[in-house]
């Protein structure tokens, strides 16, 4: 699997901030401005949220920003790129963390908050059924969008946020797995994950690549090897984050420590 010379996705841009606090504040400002711009243009916007330390720190900064109500929260569709398949009130759940950091504090339309099902939800402890249900919800949203073709499996998300692990996972796509090779489904169940909790749900790389803008958010020296390898053109099967690209923009928003091993020619 490769993204080299793929005309349907964008080349990465890298923005390096001095430290993780500046990064979180700057990414929050960028997110507010981008969603407000999209809403001015189209009337509504969509965002795909991520879990992980930096993803949640950015939402926390959006909540704290005096500019946060530049976004019309009632005209925003909220999705997730991955979810830990645990009970709804488990602190590990990405949805719960996002609600605590931001969504519980802004007037989102709950009908437009599209969380992945929890393990105590309507499908019980069945990640296959939960993944299939999320895929169907995405396909239905794509069918109802003015700009989508009837064949679209997912909406053209306006902004899709991702984090990454030191071994190169992104969303819940881990290296050298069947899930990272998945070409047909938009959403997959993921079992036996090397990072706990072991069972998760994840968008696939083709679903991620349907986004207009993909933003990779990460900080710290522990991520520096993965960042450098991804920007150096690694194979997405062995380094999933290397395959995360947006149609219009792919932006790496990182701190100096995470940028420490980037080779000059790989930006
Ligand atoms: O488990 C997860 O981890 C990644 C990265 O998180 P980080 O805390 O190491 O930055 C995140 O992107 C993903 O959404 C989450 O489920």
Word description of this protein:
The chain is α/β, with parallel strands linked by helices and 267 residues long. It has one domain (13-255): Rossmann fold. 29% of the residues lie in helices and 16% in strands. Strand 8 (213-218), helix 7 (224-231) and strand 9 (249-255) form a beta-alpha-beta unit. The ligand O=C1O[C@H](COP(=O)(O)O)[C@@H](O)[C@H](O)[C@H]1O binds next to helix 2 and strand 4. Its EC number is 3.1.1.31.
Quick synopsis:
The protein is of the alpha/beta class and 267 residues long.
Order of helices and strands: EHEHEEHHEHEEHEHE
Q: Bound compounds, please?
A: ligand LXAUTJHC
Taking all residues together, what is the mean pLDDT? Answer: 95
For the record, the CATH class is: Alpha Beta
**Cα-to-Cα separation, first versus last residue:** 20 Å
**Integer count of domains:** 1
Radius of gyration: 17 Å
Enzyme class: hydrolase
EC number: 3.1.1.31
Pathway: Carbohydrate degradation; pentose phosphate pathway; D-ribulose 5-phosphate from D-glucose 6-phosphate (oxidative stage): step 2/3
GO molecular function: 6-phosphogluconolactonase activity
Descriptive terms for the model:
267 residues, alpha/beta, Rossmann fold, three-stranded antiparallel sheet, 9 strands, binds ligand LXAUTJHC
Outline the fold blueprint.
Elements: E1 12-17, H1 20-42, E2 45-49, H2 53-64, E3 76-80, E4 82-84, H3 94-101, H4 127-144, E5 159-162, H5 178-181, E6 187-190, E7 200-203, H6 205-208, E8 213-218, H7 224-231, E9 249-255
Parallel strand pairs: 1-9, 2-3, 2-5, 5-8, 8-9
Antiparallel strand pairs: 4-7, 6-7
Helix pairs in contact: 1-2, 2-3
């Amino acid at each position: 699997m490769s993204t080299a010379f793929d005309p349907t996705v964008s080349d990465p841009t890298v923005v390096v901030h001095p430290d993780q606090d500046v990064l979180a504040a700057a990414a929050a400002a960028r997110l507010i401005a981008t969603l407000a711009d999209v809403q001015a243009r189209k009337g509504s916007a969509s965002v795909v949220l991520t879990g992980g330390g930096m993803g949640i720190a950015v939402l926390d900064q959006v909540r704290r920003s005096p500019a946060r109500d530049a976004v019309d929260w009632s005209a925003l569709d909220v999705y997730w790129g991955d979810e830990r398949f645990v009970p709804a009130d488990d602190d590990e759940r990405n949805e719960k963390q996002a609600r605590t950091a931001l969504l519980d504090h802004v007037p989102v339309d709950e009908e437009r908050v599209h969380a992945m099902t929890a393990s105590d939800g309507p499908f019980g402890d069945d990640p296959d059924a939960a993944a299939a249900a999320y895929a169907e919800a995405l396909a239905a949203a794509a069918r109802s969008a003015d700009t989508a073709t009837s064949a679209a499996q997912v909406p053209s998300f306006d902004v899709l946020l991702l984090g990454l692990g030191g071994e190169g996972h992104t969303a819940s796509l881990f290296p050298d797995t069947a899930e990272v090779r998945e070409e047909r489904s938009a959403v997959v169940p993921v079992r036996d994950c090397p990072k706990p909790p072991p069972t998760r749900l994840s968008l696939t790389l083709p679903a991620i690549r349907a986004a207009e803008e993909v933003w990779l958010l990460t900080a710290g020296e522990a991520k520096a090897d993965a960042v450098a390898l991804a920007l150096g053109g690694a194979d997405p099967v062995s380094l999933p984050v290397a395959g995360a690209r947006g149609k219009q923009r792919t932006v790496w928003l990182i701190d100096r420590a995470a940028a420490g091993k980037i080779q000059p020619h790989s930006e």
